[in-house]
Amino acid sequence: MGHFFSSKREHFFRPLCGKQRAMVANCLQALYMRLHGPQADYRTLVTREELVALLLPVIADSPVLEADGSEAEHDSGEDDRARLSAILRQLIEHGWVETLADKAQLVSVYRLTRAGKAFTESFIALEGRGLRARQRNVRNTRNSLERYLQDADPFNLVDALTTAGQINSDLSDDIDDLHERRAELLRGAAERYREAFEEFLGYMKNQFVPDLSVRLSADSVESHRSAIVTSVDTVRRWPHERLRIAGEGLARLFPEAESLGEGNPLLRILDRIESLVDSACDGKMPELRTALSGFVRQADVLIRQAQALSVHQEGSPGLLFEKLSKVGEAQREAFLATVGATVLPTLPSLLDPGKLQRQAPRSRRVIQSIADTTPPTREELLAAALASAREAAFAMTIPEIRRRVLAQMGDAMVLHIRDFRVMDALDLLALSHCIEIGAVGYPNDKPRLAVEPVVDENGYPAWAETPYGRIEDFRIRRDFGHV
């Protein structure tokens, strides 16, 4: 693992720790949107003059923050251009921004460093700026797996793993966002009902409808789960040779696959994708619904309170409070005294003990029900007899299978199931169930038969071609250690 705080990054976060931390963060976001945003102009580089023109309005609109987070007055003795020069010097010194020489125009150009770009992307994501299509990660996982089934391109499989890992991260971001918005509603409800109500409507219109509602319905991880699991299972059923070749190709292209565990990296990636989808369905989706339900309930309370305190609705408490605030104290006291007399609670009346009577216990009625059964018809009896005959015709006991296996072995010590001769239907049944005699044995079996899988030189199960299809090879041997 590399050391992040080295070279120029020794005090990487120092620009974000002073009174001008809000200015620094806003300047970084503005530079990022110019260099990498949706409307970035990649044909021109950012010179000193363009950088000053870009960031001066940002400096003017950004607050100066005290240690407790409260806003302070701008220092009138220092102009915005001097602040920008100091901020830019800090960003270059501590590894956020770097300068390059443009040999064509003989000027210096500015850009974000790799670390500066990565951390500024976090600011952009937290504020929800820029274009996002996060609800597509579930669909992209499914599409990448289906493309991998078609062309066996390992890059499609790695894309599926990447987008599957992003599903849980997106759901966690949504859950955290809902919790933060609920806390903001609670903080603002006591002071600004109307503003909080408008913020809720804006969230439902701008974020919930285009993003969360899609994630909870059409692009829900639950709606695509079966297709993803089907694709994963299809790859797992590939022949062992194909799985081996695909795993070796993955290991050559992506050495990082070794971190997923031992064994075939292809199977490890498939296990990881299935595990991520399962955790999203079974863990994150219920948590997201709970967080959304709590947010909506809190917003409903806020809306009701805002309506009750509205001064524009006739008969509302808000209109009454506004009228009371405009009258004199004597008139207000008289009105409140009148209201108090009318809303006094009535005196409680006690029950007469003589009128209280204990109810007699009820006897429970027992209703006798008789099931009216109809005797089976001749057709039903015939169908049951045919079904029983079919089950008996295609059923073999373990002792019968042992007898046929021992007859095939003769005096040999070992018999491969690929060499099992099929002369009739019972031999075919014995071949399909012969490996069960290794798991089920009886004390009086002499000799006991042991069943072992046959593997190739690479340690994978060996397969054999028979007239009845391709089967996995096993060897059956006499185990005299249990005689």
Question: How are the SSEs ordered, and which strands pair?
Answer:
Layout (H helix, E strand, L loop, with lengths): L20 H16 L9 E2 H14 L2 E2 L5 E2 L7 H14 L3 E6 L4 E6 L1 H14 L9 H15 L2 H36 L3 H24 L4 H16 L3 H14 L11 H44 L8 H10 L2 H14 L35 H16 L4 H12 L4 E3 L8 H9 L14 E6 L9 E4 L2 E4 L1 E6 L4
What does this structure look like?
- The chain has helices spanning 21-36, 48-61, 80-93, 114-127, 137-151, 154-189, 193-216, 221-236, 240-253, 265-308, 317-326, 329-342, 378-393, 398-409, 425-433; strands at residues 46-47, 64-65, 71-72, 97-102, 107-112, 414-416, 448-453, 463-466, 469-472, 474-479.
- The model has no long low-confidence stretch (mean pLDDT 76).
- Helix 1 (21-36) packs across helix 2, helix 6 (154-189) runs parallel beside helix 10 and helix 7 (193-216) runs antiparallel to helix 10 (265-308).
- The chain contains 15 helices and ten strands.
- The protein is mainly α.
- The longest helix is centred in the middle third of the chain and has 44 residues, at 265-308.
- Helices cover 55% and strands 8% of the residues.
- The radius of gyration is 38 Å and the shape is flat.
- The strands form four sheets. It has a three-stranded antiparallel β-sheet. The chain has a three-stranded antiparallel β-sheet with strand order 6-10-7, covered by helices on one side.
- A hairpin with a 5-residue loop joins strand 2 (64-65) and strand 3.
- It folds into three domains: 7-127, Arc Repressor Mutant, subunit A; 134-308, no CATH class; 391-482.
